[in-house]
Amino acid sequence: MPTTALQLSDVTKKFGRQTVLSNINMTIQQGDIYGLIGENGAGKSTLMRLITGLSPLRSGQIMLLGASRNQAGYNQALQRIGTIIESPALYPHLTVYQNLMVSAKQKGVANRQDVLATIQFVGLTEKTKTKANRLSLGQRQRLGLAIALLAQPDFLILDEPINGLDPMGIIEIRDLLHRLNTEQQTTILISSHILTELYQVCTRFGFIHRGRLIQEITKPALDAASQSGIILHVADVNAASEVLDAQHIKPFNVMNNHQIIIYNNTLDTGEINYQLNHAGVRVDDIQTQSGSLETYFTTLLQKDDQKGGAAS
Amino acid sequence: MMRIFKSDLYRLFHTTGFWLTLVVTLIAAVVSAANKAIGGITMGTSALENMAAPNWTVYNTARYLSFSTTYLPYVFIGLFVILIGYEFSQQTYKNTLTAGIGRWQFIISKNLTLLLTVGVLIALFFFSGVLTSAIAGRPMGAALGKIISRILLYTGSQLVGIAAVYALATVLLVLFHSTVIAAVFIVVFPLFVPGLNTFVHWSWLKYIDFLSTSQNLTAGILSNQTLGRFILVSVLTTIIAWLASALILKNQEL
């Protein structure tokens, strides 16, 4: 049975009168690579700063590796994590090796071999003696990642680590994260404002919009939901499934208690609607989706905006 | 705490600014002693009037150099910037604080590392000056033990004063995340307090004229008996400023 690495319960954050995070409930299991997706300003960095202790927690509860944010043991839990928050924090006049040695001594792993191995792991061996202020953006990100990895953390928290990287840089970071997860069983929480950048590396996704976690979804479910097809919102998915089977309308997938996706958008939606109504299944909504991660993401945000608009 | 201490010392020894500070400190001591130069930034006329005619024995070299230690907090601003200021200008505090280091531990260890470094440099300043005098063939003027104890007294009293000024600068640094504001405070505060006292004549101001303690001791303005009161004010100011810095840091959005 998987163990919970991070649990957020009713976490709310306000800056003055502005609510930037509202009742966030989120669970990350050990071994997950959890992608936190949201537009700029959605609240991703604030959430990560709350988890890592850089922002005071006034409302809600955070449990990290079994320790509560409000208790003294949280600092011990923090010692088991590695972080990059917003951008890698480096000493510009020190070399790659020296930057890592500073962190190594701070984390009590002042072993030259460990430092060199970490440099090699992130692919910076040729830059070992290069000063941080002479590194490219991608190399700086990799050095930041190396600092986060030094003490072999159980949990990595990475805030937009692939922001501004070129395609090759993104692939390299993704490969690194894959290796960490598979070789060292490191749990990873990673954020981005671009879903496609994280799609290939994450096992679960959380979508954050205007300070609210509007959906959590596993990768298989996201794959199913983002394919092209026809989305049905019905009152009774079991009855609707029977109708679709009887009419040889295939393939389809039941997403939840009220949603079915038919992976064939060449079918006539009017005909499907007629068949379901004829069988006594109430159809609340029927629409086609063009089938891409970006479309899924933008549709999700639009729906949430409409809900917000309707509520207000 | 020891881990931060070790990592800061590693960083310090790999920063050119530290070695430049060390060289400047040693040159200042050697030049002052060799040229029999007495002078200090906040050195008031009362201090000078209380001085007897200079007699450059090895022992008195240590005494006279205590005036010049008022320059040192300015020379050491670089160390303040390297050890504490950088954390905020480069936001490297994120690495430390997210690694499970508490705010109080962070502030204390940074300041203690700074004070240890400053203390060693002040002692080196005195010892190199005294050595210059000895090499110049001047008479000892006192037993070696007395010279050493004098140096340690001056180093200690100056260090306590510097600790208070740097601790107050740390509060400003943490509050505004601005190395410039903190550095300007270190420059202005030791000049501002005696300057203000000239106009308002508030007797309590002398207790927060932290950097004048050792020169007043040399000039005979301050007795060994009243020294304790000055040190107590400096130490209390330092501790309260450290607590305030940690508290501000704890409640800040970082």
From TrEMBL, chain A:
<keyword id="KW-0547">Nucleotide-binding</keyword>
<keyword id="KW-0813">Transport</keyword>
<dbReference type="InterPro" id="IPR003439">
    <property type="entry name" value="ABC_transporter-like_ATP-bd"/>
</dbReference>
<dbReference type="InterPro" id="IPR027417">
    <property type="entry name" value="P-loop_NTPase"/>
</dbReference>
<feature type="domain" description="ABC transporter">
    <location>
        <begin position="6"/>
        <end position="235"/>
    </location>
</feature>
<protein>
    <submittedName>
        <fullName>Bacitracin ABC transporter, ATP-binding protein BcrA</fullName>
    </submittedName>
</protein>
<dbReference type="InterPro" id="IPR003593">
    <property type="entry name" value="AAA+_ATPase"/>
</dbReference>
<comment type="similarity">
    <text>Belongs to the ABC transporter superfamily.</text>
</comment>
<keyword id="KW-0067">ATP-binding</keyword>
<dbReference type="GO" id="GO:0005524">
    <property type="term" value="F:ATP binding"/>
</dbReference>
<dbReference type="GO" id="GO:0016887">
    <property type="term" value="F:ATP hydrolysis activity"/>
</dbReference>
<dbReference type="Pfam" id="PF00005">
    <property type="entry name" value="ABC_tran"/>
</dbReference>
<dbReference type="InterPro" id="IPR017871">
    <property type="entry name" value="ABC_transporter-like_CS"/>
</dbReference>
Automatic annotation (TrEMBL), chain B:
<feature type="transmembrane region" description="Helical">
    <location>
        <begin position="183"/>
        <end position="204"/>
    </location>
</feature>
<keyword id="KW-1133">Transmembrane helix</keyword>
<keyword id="KW-0812">Transmembrane</keyword>
<dbReference type="Pfam" id="PF12730">
    <property type="entry name" value="ABC2_membrane_4"/>
</dbReference>
<keyword id="KW-0472">Membrane</keyword>
<feature type="transmembrane region" description="Helical">
    <location>
        <begin position="64"/>
        <end position="86"/>
    </location>
</feature>
<feature type="transmembrane region" description="Helical">
    <location>
        <begin position="112"/>
        <end position="131"/>
    </location>
</feature>
<protein>
    <submittedName>
        <fullName>Uncharacterized protein</fullName>
    </submittedName>
</protein>
<feature type="transmembrane region" description="Helical">
    <location>
        <begin position="151"/>
        <end position="176"/>
    </location>
</feature>
<feature type="transmembrane region" description="Helical">
    <location>
        <begin position="230"/>
        <end position="249"/>
    </location>
</feature>
